[in-house]
Amino acid sequence: MSKKVLVLPGDGIGPEIVEQAVRVLDAVNASFDLGIEHESALVGGSAYDETGSPLPETTLDKAKAADSILLGAVGGPKWDGLDMSVRPEKGLLGLRSNLELFANLRPAILYPQLADASSLKPEIVAGLDILIVRELTGGIYFGQPRGIRTLENGEREGFNTYVYSESEIRRIAHSAFEAARQRGKRVCSIDKSNVLEVTVLWKEVMEEVAKEYPDVELSHMLVDNAAMQLVRAPKQFDVMVTGNMFGDILSDAAAMLTGSIGMLPSASLNSKGQGMYEPCHGSAPDIAGKGIANPLATILSVAMMLRYSLNAKDAADAIEAAVSNVLDQGLRTADIASEGSETVSTSQMGDAVLAAL
Amino acid sequence: MSKKVLVLPGDGIGPEIVEQAVRVLDAVNASFDLGIEHESALVGGSAYDETGSPLPETTLDKAKAADSILLGAVGGPKWDGLDMSVRPEKGLLGLRSNLELFANLRPAILYPQLADASSLKPEIVAGLDILIVRELTGGIYFGQPRGIRTLENGEREGFNTYVYSESEIRRIAHSAFEAARQRGKRVCSIDKSNVLEVTVLWKEVMEEVAKEYPDVELSHMLVDNAAMQLVRAPKQFDVMVTGNMFGDILSDAAAMLTGSIGMLPSASLNSKGQGMYEPCHGSAPDIAGKGIANPLATILSVAMMLRYSLNAKDAADAIEAAVSNVLDQGLRTADIASEGSETVSTSQMGDAVLAAL
Ligand SMILES: CC(C)[C@H](C(=O)O)[C@@H](O)C(=O)O
Ligand SMILES: CC(C)[C@H](C(=O)O)[C@@H](O)C(=O)O
């Protein structure tokens, strides 16, 4: 039975890095005989330019029919002036919500070969390995009512709604506890329960679900403290679980602790085992088209996809080993270059991973 | 004409650190002949314990009548089980909102003497001097509707409202631009305008107000990117302005970049020039009563108070110079101790500042 992968290059550096990742996918597909078929579709700004929509119906249909999705990145200043309803980001948010990809897994791992790249002292980040589990289809990103209205006194007011139901919290709690079981068996749930009622409920449901995982330890931390602790002593964390908005902020901070966000993949999963895989970094329009972007986060996203959605653990291991191997060889794209390393282009990095496979 | 200062020691280490700060206030009051009178009142958990309310009416009345307020800190695990309406934090939030202390100024400054304390590499943080201007009486902290309700299907749902009117945004924008004029003349406004409508309005009003400050440069950054940039290259910022929730998170992250949050004061101002001054750190219940807490952030809060609310710039300068002097002497409380420094207690640190004055 063949597996279908939908490839969505997107905007900015998306097409360049996805090209290399697809070469890697093709290689393991052949050598491990995985029976994967893939096709491409438009999403984001490039989809808007062609069709007037950042998420054309054909793309959504193909996404629903796929076993998994490989995404590059979306967005760029070119589309900044557009109405929010058709901005590139809406393509991404539409995929997340239509496919109910509620569980976003964002590992922040420091590769020993890249320890120097961090802005933090080596002893603070050496061996860093955190997993941020972010709720991705609820919270203030999707809450209603929302908008900008005119008040009686004539001035305008902007408003959004931060909302979570018990069942939404429960399912992301399960994702976090399951993930922790495969790792350090500790979950830290992040809230602002001293101010926000919605996170009081969040905390309560976390406690409730924790009872089903007696082997996993649950702790709680306020979001402001979590931001501090990530800077102060990030290695205290194993799995952090939080809502959509806090997760957006904290996962980016955590990724940046490594100094090599160009290395970090992510997965967004639904309850049917479908997943969308993408690098943690954005579309980097400033370097798009120059052939210097780092394709490794996207290549590692392929590995994550093979592991979580396509049941091909060996192929995933092989890709991860190949990436480690090229780092050992001293090959670096510009974003992670350091003294003594050899700076290579996007496609040269792809070549090197293929050679190491 | 005498100036009235209300002293609110609060909970945890609050009383200990405020005690030292009041000694310093008394000293400059005498030597600079400032005519300051002060009295104390209860707030937070200790107020709840005595009166059943975290913000007793007598405290609020005294606060309204005061020229400025010196606060220690509120909260602690002792009160964690209380209903949100009477938790210690409500005392703090009640003061902010009743006095309309909408402009929260949180400097993140790295003292050269404490450069080692940071978890970041010295070259990343040396000379760091950012000012975070956080809106403090609006946004999701105070937005209505809010609460936890039961849905028709029987499950519960928690909800909060993130809301800002144009006038609320406009006044905090003015605070940020005015502050930038006294500093590096650059304001970076933080939003999530690619997802949240309320921050689309925020960004628009920032642009509008910027026209009145042609000498100040305005830029915009998404909150997730801001969290990354603070970790990657914090010195790129001069003044950052943002809403209540993002400000809570980013100001704590920025403070922690210095590694010495025990050194950072803050001011919360209203449009009448009244201000509440407090350390950036919390009530640290784990070390309360041990006499080891760092009183310098509270002492520096007194300096900020003299400068911003009591028109006593010379006295403020004197306090800041005295603090710098004790650091030069190598005196450190435990939180900022390092090799070769002399570890002193809370009251010894107070003694040293008084001696240096
Ligand atoms: C592009 C944007 C809508 C998105 C988000 O905020 O979720 C991005 O920042 C991310 O984290 O994937
Ligand atoms: C204690 C709490 C309510 C408060 C806040 O969230 O504003 C604190 O974290 C702060 O930043 O002053």
Automatic annotation (TrEMBL), chains A, B:
Pathway annotation: Amino-acid biosynthesis; L-leucine biosynthesis; L-leucine from 3-methyl-2-oxobutanoate: step 3/4
Family statement: Belongs to the isocitrate and isopropylmalate dehydrogenases family. LeuB type 1 subfamily.
Listed transmembrane segments: none
Main location per the UniProt record: cytoplasm
Keyword annotations of the record: Amino-acid biosynthesis, Branched-chain amino acid biosynthesis, Cytoplasm, Leucine biosynthesis, Magnesium, Manganese, Metal-binding, NAD, Oxidoreductase
EC number: 1.1.1.85
Catalytic activity of the protein: (2R,3S)-3-isopropylmalate + NAD(+) = 4-methyl-2-oxopentanoate + CO2 + NADH
Function: Catalyzes the oxidation of 3-carboxy-2-hydroxy-4-methylpentanoate (3-isopropylmalate) to 3-carboxy-4-methyl-2-oxopentanoate. The product decarboxylates to 4-methyl-2 oxopentanoate.
Gene3D superfamilies: Isopropylmalate Dehydrogenase
Site entry: Important for catalysis: Y141, K192
List of residues binding Mg(2+): D224, D248, D252
Enzyme category, top tier: oxidoreductase
GO annotation (BP), single: L-leucine biosynthetic process
Subunit structure: Homodimer.
Positions contributing to substrate binding: R96, R106, R134, D224
Binding-site list for NAD(+): 76-89, 282-294
Entry's Gene Ontology molecular function annotations: 3-isopropylmalate dehydrogenase activity; magnesium ion binding; NAD binding
Sections of the chain in a coiled coil: none
Places the protein is found: Cytoplasm
Cofactor(s) essential for the protein: Mn(2+); Mg(2+)
Superkingdom as given in the UniProt entry: Bacteria
Keyword Cytoplasm: yes
Record gene name: leuB
Protein name listed in UniProt: 3-isopropylmalate dehydrogenase
Cofactor note as given: Binds 1 Mg(2+) or Mn(2+) ion per subunit.
Stored InterPro entries: IsoCit/isopropylmalate_DH_CS, IsoPropMal-DH-like_dom, Isopropylmalate_DH
PROSITE patterns named among the record's database cross-references: IDH_IMDH
